[in-house]
Design goal:
The complex is a heterodimer.
Chain A lengths: L15 H24 L7 E6 L11 E3 H13 L6 E5 L7 H13 L10 H32 L1 H15 L7 H8 L3 H25 L3 H9 L5 H35 L6 H11 L3 H29 L9 H13 L18 H4 L1
Antiparallel strand pairs in A: 1-2, 1-3
Helix pairs in contact in A: 3-11, 4-5, 4-7, 4-9, 4-10, 5-7, 6-7, 7-9, 9-11, 10-11
Chain B lengths: L15 H12 L2 E13 L5 E13 L3 E5 L6 H9 L6 E6 L2 E2 L7 E4 L11 H12 L3 H14 L15 H13 L5 E5 L7 H17 L3 E6 L2 H7 L2 E6 L4 E7 L14 H14 L5 H11 L15
Parallel strand pairs in B: 3-8, 3-9, 6-7, 7-8
Antiparallel strand pairs in B: 1-2, 1-4, 4-5, 9-10
Helix pairs in contact in B: 3-4, 3-5, 4-5, 7-8
Classes of the chains: A mainly alpha, B alpha/beta.
């Protein structure tokens, strides 16, 4: 540990402290650029916010005008021996300062909806999450088993995949009008759009993952007396479980991208409705806050799923994880053994096998 | 075949003890009968190649047979046919007198690449066969732990395969195959990927296991010493197409030990195997052999900077 490896080494892992540091920097860097553009008046700032209208008749305090217009109007006012208007350089309304967006994170939740029938932000978010959840869940329930069948049996692959491959190229939003006609204007068509957006990809992705099953494992299982559909259940699926989990995580990201399209179908709803509404009122800090919230929600979900994945598939990680060891200890100290274990578990990785399979 | 100057005895000469052993062995019932086994492959360009042709042999109960041959003689094709992972073009395969098709638990197999299930612990891997058979989980676990103890891995019963060394993985694979109580254990170059020291240890382990378990072993190798050290009889194949060249009864007495590597019987058998596997080159192939043995390399070092 005395000699730390270089920062730039090809295909070499970085120390965990450095990885964390770089992870933070990757977020801080864009934030710094945003701050620089927002708080330094000489970078960009193409507008002027009027403070004192002076002799310009149509200027009002707080009005944003382009710098060229501001200068031209002032020249005209001076020529007419009127007092010049004063103002500060500012960014356009669609680029609020970071601190305003930070405030909006709080105020967006506390601002009462302006119109009757509008909804609070947390209601919008909750509705979006529900839409995603149902769309993605239905897609998984049908898509994963179908993908497994297609990956395991050439018969199902040939009967299913060509047409799925064809439909996959049709953009999901194209089905919007159809979905509304069939399913009405409320949540059903939105869930349908998310389903259409993820399902066809999911079948193909899952089938491809399943097809990469190590044939040697299948042969070994066959010589041990496993045959037919049991091979799928006992060898193919478990051997690819960790990869299927990762596939599903990635596909959940797809589902989020379809959310925005889905929510404008029929009656606009959810977070998209909130964003559109706030943009209409020109509350761009709220718009930014909402967009960042979607990002944070996605990131948080992904990280939680990744964390759970490490716990679910202990054979994938060779290094014992400290968190896993901790949790295992936590549970093993309280657990009354269900089956008489002949000897204590060798390592932290020894969790109940039945729970996984 | 015998070089007259050699002080080695004839490899066919058996001491009375060894001869008596073989007589007893041949009285035992036949476990595996291979009749005219042939496998042809159709290549992508439509031409046919014959991997193995008209293989005939029998193995008796609790016999240890090694299959030896030069690369490309169809050793692996043969064992895959025996395991049922491939279907023969013609010929029959009988286990205890009954014809078998397809893979089955009565013919256990140990692969060179271990093929342990990475998502299962050592115990769960060994339990796999019994569970597939319908044994209940507690009983299967109890059985599995006995097999794990037999291969000396009790301390690692709850480890995952990726935490084990190559030799340990192969011991788990052997335990997993044996847990099915197979009639015959097929081993496809099982120690080929191991380092020399581990390999020697594994050979010793395998002999111990074989001694204590009612199982017939068919073991593929390309290592002459390994074949002589382990086998009762060695089935030597020749290449293009793969055919039985000779079935050698190993005259080295049992129990075997590494000291026997230099005994007269061992060296005589080895010389015979060497002659079969690496036959003297005919004149036409000779120039080719010389060309490959001495590479046409020009000197790239300074004169005086010699290493030998």
């Amino acid at each position: 540990m005395s000699v730390s490896p270089p920062w730039f080494a090809i295909q070499q892992p970085l120390a965990s402290r450095r990885r964390l540091l770089l992870g933070i920097v990757s977020f801080v860097l864009p934030l710094l650029i945003w701050c620089a553009v927002s708080y330094t008046p000489f970078i960009w700032h193409p507008m002027v916010r009027v403070e004192n209208p002076g002799g310009v008749s149509w200027f009002r305090p707080g009005l944003l005008v382009e710098r060229a217009v501001f200068a031209a109007e002032n020249e005209k006012a001076l020529a007419a021996s009127q007092p010049a208007a004063t103002g500060k350089r500012a960014n356009p309304v669609f680029l609020p300062e970071p601190h305003k967006v930070a405030q909006a994170f709080y105020t967006a939740f506390t601002t009462e909806p302006k119109l009757r029938g509008d909804v609070w932000l947390h209601e919008s978010l909750w509705r979006s999450i529900q839409t995603i959840f149902w769309g993605f869940l239905i897609s998984c329930i049908i898509g994963i088993p179908l993908g497994i069948l297609c990956g395991a049996y050439a018969f199902w692959s040939r009967i299913g995949e060509p047409v799925i491959d064809f439909i996959r190229y049709m953009p999901a939003p194209a089905f919007g009008a159809l979905a509304v006609a069939v399913l009405g204007i409320n949540d059903a068509p939105k869930i349908a759009i998310i389903f259409i957006g993820t399902f066809f990809q999911q079948v193909l992705v899952v089938a491809n993952t399943i097809r990469r099953t190590d044939p040697a494992l299948l042969e070994a299982a066959q010589t041990l007396g496993c045959r037919g559909f049991r091979l799928v259940l006992h060898v193919i699926v478990p051997s690819k479980l960790a990869e299927l989990y990762t596939d599903t995580r990635i596909l959940l990201g797809w589902a989020w991208t379809y959310l925005i399209v889905a929510e404008v179908v029929g009656v606009s709803s959810g977070i998209t409705f909130f964003i559109n509404q706030q943009a209409k009122y020109r509350n761009f800090e709220n718009v930014y806050a909402a967009i960042i919230m979607i990002g944070l929600l996605g990131l948080a979900t992904d990280q939680i799923l990744a964390f759970i994945g490490k716990r679910l598939f202990p054979w994938e990680t060779q290094r014992p994880s400290r968190i896993r060891a901790f949790i295992t200890r936590l549970f093993s100290s309280r657990r009354t053994p269900l089956t008489a274990s002949p000897r204590p578990p060798l390592s932290s990785t020894a969790t109940s096998p039945e729970a996984r399979s | 075949m015998n070089t007259s100057a050699s002080p080695l005895p004839d490899y066919r000469a058996q001491s009375p003890a060894v001869a008596a052993r073989f007589a007893k062995l041949k009285e035992r019932p036949v476990v595996l009968t291979v009749e005219n086994l042939t496998r042809r492959f159709t290549k992508a360009d439509g031409t046919e190649t014959t991997a193995i042709e008209n293989i005939n042999f029998v193995t008796h109960r609790r016999e240890f047979v090694c299959i030896l041959g030069p690369s490309g003689c169809g050793k692996s094709t043969l064992i895959r046919l025996l395991a049922g992972l491939d279907t023969p073009t013609s010929g029959r395969l009988l286990l205890d007198g009954k014809e078998v098709h397809g893979p089955g638990p009565e013919r256990g197999m140990v692969f060179q690449g271990y093929t342990l299930f990475p998502w299962k612990t050592v115990t769960q891997n060994v339990m796999f066969g019994p569970i597939m058979r319908g044994t209940d989980s507690d009983e299967a676990r109890r059985e599995a732990l006995q097999w794990i103890e037999l291969v000396g891995l009790s301390k690692f019963a709850d480890a995952y395969p990726n935490q084990l060394s190559g030799g340990m993985k192969q011991r788990v694979a052997i335990a997993r195959a044996l847990a099915n109580n197979p009639r015959i254990l097929l081993m496809d170059e099982p120690f080929g990927a191991l380092d020399a020291q581990t390999r020697a240890q594994m050979q010793k382990h395998l002999l111990q296991i074989w001694k204590n378990v009612d199982v017939t072993i068919l073991f593929i190798t390309h290592d002459l010493d390994e074949a002589i050290y382990l086998a009762d009889r060695i089935l030597v194949l020749k290449a293009n197409p793969g055919r039985v060249d000779e079935l050698i009864e190993v005259p080295v007495p049992r129990p075997r030990s590494p000291e026997q590597f230099f005994s007269a019987e061992f060296l005589a058998t080895r010389a015979r195997l060497d002659a079969l596997i690496h036959p003297p080159q005919p004149a036409s192939a000779l120039s080719d052999a010389i060309a490959t043995e001495n590479l046409p390399i020009i000197r790239l070092t300074q004169s005086g900077d010699d290493v030998e």
